[in-house]
Amino acid sequence: MSQEPSKPKCLACDQDSTVTPLIALEYQGERLWICPQHLPVLIHDPTKLVGRLAGAEDLKAADHKD
What we know:
Strand order of the largest sheet: 1-2
Number of domains: 1
Number of helices: 1
Shape: globular
Number of strands: 2
């Protein structure tokens, strides 16, 4: 018996698209989803996603030269 795919949800807060818009991304060959509220976390402080995103501890924050 094949397993039904799980409903897309934000990798940071677990909300699904019935609650918030979701943005699809691909990382390490896997399709993931993140909501607009948590996209800045992925960009500016990805270490906050440790335990929710494999390898988050190795991702570097964006380097802004404002």
